[in-house]
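Hi support team,

I've been running sequence recovery on a batch of backbones for a student project. Most finish fine, but this one hangs at about 90% for roughly twenty minutes before it completes. I'm not sure whether the input is malformed or the queue is just slow. I've pasted the structure tokens below so you can try to reproduce it. Let me know if you need the job ID as well.

Thanks,
M.K.
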């Protein structure tokens, strides 16, 4: 597909072009149009739309972001559809989804790796063009031998050295992580498209910050903490990391490198399955349960950022919004883990 097609959204009156290789969602965001979304990879259902006129191609017919009821009602996912000609759609949009940094496609080469835990590895890429992104955002990676893009969060912050750092957990039988861990070598090239995501650091929010990470949700939370330090914000960062066992705990070494660790930056690791003989003396249980115990002020007085497995993010949403009536505008997360 070499020609561009015109996409018109009846709901907000916007109109934008879809270039070769783009989904409807990526075309919108690249044009500065704020179509609603979260994961950009077919899992969350946040980018559902109705096709009013024209033809589309569905990239992943069985994407879990659509229920059978959605399919029967003729709904589609903007992140998993491409226009086959000029189309008219009805899709939700809002100012909060308008990109703060315009996503762009470029090539990136693997510059190095380091192991963080037994199953989390940092991959450092140097891109051809830029590394212009906000703390907490993610990128879509096109990996060798893998059909479709994979979403991974950056652990570093935007920089002039064109570096994009990702801290990724190996997923058993996961095609994306198999390509990264077992096939990709230093010097190899991948496709990188970004940044994406709406759970970026709000530097204008006056409240102290709570970061909650689980698994490879470590990366965007480390990015948030680094962003606070780089911006010189007068905020205390309470950093919670939820791990299954003591050997899964990570992140403290990276936080220790930041000014104010131990005072303005506080690290609280929580282990859900402490094993006999490992000598774990820290907090145990589910990480979300520790917030009420460890935070010195009522939960409504903080700005929350979190990333991790879906059960963790769901439990946090219920705790904050239902249990403590924390305003939704103080809660920031992207659903793609």
């Amino acid at each position: 597909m070499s020609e561009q097609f015109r996409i018109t959204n009846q709901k907000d009156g916007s109109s934008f072009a879809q270039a070769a290789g783009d989904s409807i969602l990526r075309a919108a965001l690249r044009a500065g149009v704020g179509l609603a979304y979260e994961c950009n990879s077919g899992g969350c259902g946040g980018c559902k739309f109705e096709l009013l006129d024209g033809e589309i191609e569905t990239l992943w017919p069985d994407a879990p972001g659509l229920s059978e009821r959605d399919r029967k009602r003729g709904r589609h996912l903007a992140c998993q559809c491409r226009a086959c000609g000029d189309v008219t759609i009805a899709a939700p949009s809002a100012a909060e989804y308008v990109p703060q940094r315009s996503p762009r496609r470029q090539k990136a080469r693997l510059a190095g790796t380091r192991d963080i835990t037994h199953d989390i590895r940092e991959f450092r890429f140097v891109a051809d063009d830029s590394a212009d992104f906000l703390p907490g955002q993610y990128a879509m990676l096109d990996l060798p031998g893998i059909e479709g893009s994979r979403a991974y969060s950056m652990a570093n912050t935007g920089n002039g050295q064109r570096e994009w750092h990702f801290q990724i957990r190996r997923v058993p039988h996961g095609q994306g992580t198999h390509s990264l861990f077992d096939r990709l070598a230093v010097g190899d090239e991948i496709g990188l498209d970004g940044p994406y995501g709406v759970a970026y650091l709000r530097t204008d929010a006056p409240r102290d910050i709570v970061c909650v990470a689980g698994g490879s949700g470590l990366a965007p939370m480390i990015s948030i903490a680094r962003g606070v330090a780089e911006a010189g914000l007068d905020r205390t960062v309470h950093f919670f990391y939820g791990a299954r066992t003591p050997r899964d705990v990570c992140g403290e070494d990276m936080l220790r490198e930041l000014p104010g660790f131990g005072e303005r930056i506080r690290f609280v690791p929580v282990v859900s399955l402490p094993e006999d003989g490992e000598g774990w003396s820290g907090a145990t249980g589910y990480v979300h349960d520790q917030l009420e115990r460890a935070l010195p002020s009522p939960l409504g007085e903080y700005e929350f950022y979190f990333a991790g497995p879906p059960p963790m993010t769901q439990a946090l949403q219920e705790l904050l919004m239902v249990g403590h009536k924390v305003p939704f505008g103080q809660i920031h997360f992207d659903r793609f883990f």
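--
Follow-up from support: It reproduced on our side and the slowdown came from queue contention, not your input. The longest strand covers residues 104-115. No action needed from you.
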